[in-house]
Amino acid sequence: MTETENNKILEVKNLSTYFYTDDGVVKAVDDVSFDLKKGETLGIVGETGCGKSVTALSILRLIPQPLGRIVAGEIIFEGRDLLKLGQKDLQNLRGNKISMIFQDPMTSLNPVYTVGNQVMESLIVHRKLKKDEARREGLKLLEMVGIPEFKRRFNNYPHEFSGGMRQRVMIAMAIANSPSILIADEPTTALDVTVQAQILELMDELKYKTNSSIIIITHDLGVVAKYANRVMVMYAGKPVEFSSVDNIFYKPAHPYTIGLMKSVTRLDEEKRGKLKPIEGLPPSLIDLPKFCIFRARCKYACDECKGEYPPLKEIEKDHFVSCYRGKEFMEGIIERFDN
After folding, report:
1. What whole-number distance in Å separates Cα of residue 113 and Cα of residue 140?
2. Is the pLDDT of residue 9 over 80?
3. Taking the model in full, what pTM does it have?
4. Is 186 left (phi over 0), alpha (psi -120 to 50) or beta?
5. Most exposed residue of 92, 111, 163, 321, measured as fewest CB within 10 angstroms of its CB?
6. What value, to the nearest 5°, has the Cα angle with vertex 298 and ends 296 and 299?
7. Are 266 and 210 within one domain?
8. CA distance 222 to 199
9. pLDDT band at residue 200, thresholds of 50, 70 and 90?
10. Cα(326)–Cα(309) distance, rounded to whole angstroms?
11. Has residue 114 got a pLDDT over 50?
């Protein structure tokens, strides 16, 4: 086994998660593969409905049944395939080895229990601490995540906290057992800009303190640029580009990635031209075509794009793209930021 392979803490291989509805089968995640390295932050980006959150929920096997089902793939963590674990092993894993910060803390926190009790629960269940010990650890966690007057607020209920403070409580719960992997699903949704920055800085700081790896799911490319090491771009349930953050921002090789970049304000706007939205709408995930899914929205489509779906290919070291013209984009043969 190579040093790079030893450094992988998580491997997702050919993951497919479908939802079976009256209208047909929704292929929310379709043949997704990626890995996560120890100590890194992986950003997953894309439009709403592209499969980002379902990918994260699939890792923890939190897909709502019977509507949803993981139909194929492997999720390898610490040498075990999580898709083959029993419920007891899964319960020991969730919140312990792999934790998740959910998108909306108000609906994730239980309104009838105090914040302190909810932080203590994970410590009691996973670390088998006695109530007094769990309380002491819980207070330390609330202090660590920056809750003001944490001793007094330990006995408050979620509705007595602001949105930013509730998100801090969620982070405290997620890091309580020093997980190996922290999954953050839109952790700054509905927070003002100042609080967003505080939450992201807190997560980044805690990553180094707890020596964990982070998967951050976001629409905000600015967040990805600052905090991620590598990026997976998803479209219609599939990964279309996967590489280092520098490659994604400076040498994007998929027209969808380029479209995302052109729709974001930049400091060098004179060079990049005006903001330009991606024309058209994402396709329905029912009865997807066998050819390139992005073809209908792509002005660079060629005859080859009408054939088989382009596989995710390595066009340079550690730079994968699902586009027949990917190398042309990467090398600048096709101008990436034209008007």
Report:
1. 19
2. yes
3. 0.90
4. left
5. 111
6. 120
7. no
8. 14
9. confident
10. 13
11. yes
